[in-house]
Every structure is written in C-alpha cells, then in structure tokens.
Amino acid sequence: MIESSAGTNIMPERFTGTLRAASEPGWSDAVGHRFVKELFTGAIPDAVMARYLIQDHRFLDSFLTLLGAALASADTFEARLRFGRFIGMVSGEENTYFLRAFEALGVMEDRRAADPDTLTTTGFKAIMREAAETRSYAAALSVLVVAEWLYLDWASRAPQPLPDNFVHAEWIMLHGNPDFRGFVDFLRAELDRVGPAQADLCHDFFRRAVALELSFFEAAYADRT
Amino acid sequence: MIESSAGTNIMPERFTGTLRAASEPGWSDAVGHRFVKELFTGAIPDAVMARYLIQDHRFLDSFLTLLGAALASADTFEARLRFGRFIGMVSGEENTYFLRAFEALGVMEDRRAADPDTLTTTGFKAIMREAAETRSYAAALSVLVVAEWLYLDWASRAPQPLPDNFVHAEWIMLHGNPDFRGFVDFLRAELDRVGPAQADLCHDFFRRAVALELSFFEAAYADRT
C-alpha cells in the first residue's frame, strides 16, 4: 500500500517498501517527531540542538566506516563511484556544517570531547560496526537506507520558507536536496536488488535501525544531569 | 640517505623512506620510465595512452575498494575524513578525466569492455583485494603509499609548460597538485605511525606494489596481437 499511487496498486511492492511498512509505527513516529516539527519552525532550543549535533557528529564517524565498508563490498563499479562521491560530500560539506554549527552554538572542543555517548549513540555505533563486519552488502545497505531515507522523508516535508537560523535551515537542506534524493533512490534500488536473497538479515537490521533513529531524536530532549 | 638533506643525516630515517629504499631500483626505474618521459613532452602515441588508460580505469575500480577498506580500518576520525575527501575526488574529478580522455582518444565503450586485463592489471587487482582483505590498516596503507607517492614523485618532476594535449597535461596535474601532495604526506605519516609494528607485512606489500607499478608502464608499450 505504501508504494501504491492514485488508488491503484498494480505495481509489485518494492522490497524497501516492505521493510519500511514492517518498521511501523517506529518509522512514522520518527519522521513526525517533535524534534522535526521544532526544526521546521526553528524552535529547537540551542541546548537541545547542541546535544543532538554532538551525538550526530559521533554518529558520522561510524557512518563513514559503514559507507567505506559498503563501497568495499559493492558489486559494481558504478555503485562504488556513487558511494565514493557521497563519501566525499559527507567528509567535506557535511562535516564543515557541523564545525560551523558548533561554533554558532558555542560548543567548544572540550565539551564535544567530554560529553559521553548516549545509549542510543552507543547502539548506533554498535549496529554500524556490526553491519560493516558482516561484509554483507545487503546488511550495510539496510542500515544506510534507514539512516538516509528516513531523513529524506522528514526533510521532504519541510514547509517553505526554511528557518532563518542556518543551524536549522542547513540541516534540513542537507537532507532534502535533489542530490540527496538521488542518493537515497540509488540506495533503495540497490537494496531492492540484493536484499531479497537475505531478507531476514535485512529485516533485522532495518527494524533495529529505525528504533535507534526514534531514540536518537528522543535523546536530544533527555536532560542528563 | 634518501631522507637526509644538505649533506646531514641527523633526522631518523622515516619508515616509508626505508620502504622506498628497499624497493630500489624498481622505484627509480618506474619514476624515470619512458612512459613518464614521453608524457612530459606529450609524445606518447595515442594507442599507448589508450591502452594505458583503459587498464588504469580498471585499476581505479579496485583502488576505490582499497580506499574504502582503508577508510573502514583507519583508527581515527580525522583519518576517515581525509580518506573520505580523497575518495570523493577520485570518484568525481578523476573518473570524469577518464571519460573525457576516452572520448578524445576515440575509445568507445565496447573497446573498453572488450580489452582483456593485462597480467599487471590482474596482479594489481589481486594485491589490492589481498590488502583490503587483511583488514590491516598498515597493509592497505602500504599499497596506497606506493600507488600515490610514486605518482607524486614523477609528476613533481614535470617541466613547465605542460603539454598542450589535456589527456597528457591533466594526467600530470592530477598527481602533481598541492592537494595531492597533501594527501601523500598524510598517507606517509599514517604508515610511518602504524607500519613499524607490522614491518614485514609492509615491506612485502610495498615491494610487490612497486614491481607492479613498473610493469604497468611497461605493459602500455607491449603490443598484444
């Protein structure tokens, strides 16, 4: 049903559509989370945004490892080039966004180093390492598809105009632009292609990754003392 | 001696300097190869350049796999970012150079697909896969340092002005520019840091990779019938 359009359902369900449907209601809870709603209006308190970005910057480190593993395990040259260009973007523009945002939020290097990983960050690092270590392209893709498609899904719903504060606006644009959409399309097509042969493995990684995404938004609002 | 300067030798030899010295005379034979000399003057016959680039484009595929493995096995976030940006450049600008060069040389898709791998290309693919599969950061670095430092070494010797033909000139510039030099400096510093603990492994991969680089230039002149 998720993949049907205009009341007809003649297309066979895509594998990634099945995975997403099976992850409900977690997927929709994440995409419609308070964090997303407040991001769209620029209303996220600085303390929450700082907590979120510190953890997400650590996520980025393990995420790069997983992308490297996906590139190394991909089975076509075209896929490797596609991962390669995306890895370049993440290591360049996206990392630079974090550094500018930390400066704007007054988050210093020592705070970034001192803040402990939240339980969710620890869980994300573990699942990304686990997926990388399977050396299964399908496993790596299952986690990557969640991390990217779920972000595309909420970012695509952002109303115009975006908030004035670049910390909010650029975080939306990084996940709602046409290049990013193209990358998500590529990831889904790859998982549609190689996933069905390892369906149980994919379902397991996908479901756990969606639960972590939801927790990740929750954790930004949890005041630790 | 290789790392000494102005007649003094008070700095301890760098590990990568030791590796390079142990790979002689192969290293110098490659850096001073006829291919390099003819590249500098723009004198490489189109048939030779086409043969060389077809094989090198296949090298790029395995090379990306090795870079992805190095990113995944690197032990610091800063190193992952550095690999990530370089992977982006290789997947973008460098791959685009190949496509433009193939067009200029009249090398069509079917010729690129039909030409068999040379023995050297097969050897390169094997050593890169082998290095990636060790999951040893030092092993991956040993092959990467050869592939990049040896190219920096010859490209740094290119006289000005560069040849008019972009197929020759850009191939030199891709390996002689300051960004590329910075990446080689990074690779060497990483191997200087992690290599000594696995010295035998590094020597073995380094020596074999240098021999393959020399064969790679040779193969471009070998007319297969």
Helical percent range of chain A? over 70%
Largest sheet, strands/sense/barrel of chain A: none
What structural class should be given to the helix and strand makeup of chain A? mainly alpha
Largest interface: A-B, 25 and 25 residues
Assembly level: homodimer
Radius of gyration of chain A: 17 Å
Q: State the total count of DSSP E strands of chain A.
A: 0
Shape of chain A: globular
Strand content of chain A: under 5%
Number of helices of chain A: 11
User: Terminal Cα separation of chain A, in Å?
Assistant: 44 Å
Summarize the structure in words.
- Two copies of one chain form a homodimer.
- With 225 residues, chain A is mostly helical.
- Chain A contains eleven helices and no strands.
- The first copy, chain A, has helices at residues 15-22, 26-31, 34-40, 46-73, 77-104, 109-114, 119-134, 137-155, 166-176, 178-194, 199-221.
- The model of chain A is unreliable at 1-7 (pLDDT under 50).
Task: Summarize the helices and strands and which ones pair or pack.
The structure is a homodimer of 225-residue chains.
Chain A: H1 15-22, H2 26-31, H3 34-40, H4 46-73, H5 77-104, H6 109-114, H7 119-134, H8 137-155, H9 166-176, H10 178-194, H11 199-221
Helix pairs in contact in A: 4-5, 4-7, 4-8, 4-11, 5-9, 7-8, 7-11, 8-9, 8-10, 8-11
